[in-house]
Each structure stands twice: as structure tokens, then as C-alpha cells.
Please model this.
Amino acid sequence: MELAFVGANPSALLWDGDQATAFVSIWQVDWSEEGPGGAVVFCRPGEFRLLCDPPLLGRWLFDNFVTHAPELTQFDLPARPAVEQASVKADLDLTAGLHATAGDLNIRITGILDRRRRLDSSLRLGGVPWSLCNVHMPCRTARIEAGGTVVPGLPRYKEGPPIGSSAYLAVAETWARL
Model:
């Protein structure tokens, strides 16, 4: 097993009825093969942004993980998106939730519904076998502002069991190639 990533990856997929309105994924990289840093993936109809510091880290995250995110099947993706160099600030509190900023994006994911350990050693991303382990925390609310304007939509959640949501915190996350 080859460790490739250690950090956190909170995310939110917002909906308006049956239409996905936006997806955001915040990458807090404590250690990786490409070094530490932060990245934010923001996607909505007609727009895909990858904000990161340093840029090579953003490209590595996109190639290895982001491009395979099932939430992104709701949107049209560029084959090779541009990386915007931007400082990523993430305040992650395991009781209160997340507040993150990058460029003109302001993201909040709050209302933690549950906390549980998750381990999946059967993932295949781009034909490569991976093991993912994290503490998964589904959340009730998520709010994304882009350019000072609130992006419409709400996360979908179910009371369970188990409790689930399209907005969640994922902390103590590790990815390893098998």
C-alpha cells in the first residue's frame, strides 16, 4: 500500500428540485505526493473552476481524484481545466463545521448530523485500485457564494439509518494506492 494523500476533503452538492445547481470540494492537504496546500473545486452549469496554491497540487488532485468524483456527473467538465492560483483558507471545526474561502468563493458547510468512520478498499479510479479511510460527517446545510452572490440550491439529506447528505465533512482522510 502506497500512501498518497493525508488531509481533509469537505464537499457539497447543491440541488434545486431535480436539478444539481453547484458542487464544491475543499481539499485541505496536510501531506501528499505533490506536497501540502489547499484547493477548491467549484462547478455549476457552464462553469468549472479549480483554485489552488500551489497550482501543481491542484492539477495532481484533479488528475487523481476530482475527475472521478461521482457528483461531477451532474455537470459538463472540461478535459483539462485551468488552475487558478489562489490562497485557500479553510477553518474546519468538528463541532461547528467548515468555513472556507478561495478567490471570490465563500463556502460554509454546517449542521453536522452524524460522525462515523468510513473505510473503502475497493475503489478504482481511472483503473487504479485505491483505499480511502476518513471520518465522514454528513451535514444539514451548505452555502456557496461566488463573486458575492449566493449560489442557489440546498443539499439533499436523509434521516437514515444511516444519516446521509450531499453536503459533508471528510476529515482524517487518507488515500493509498493498493
User: Anything to note?
Assistant: The two ends are 5 Å apart (CA to CA). The chain has a mean pLDDT of 96. Residues 55-64 form the longest helix (10 residues).
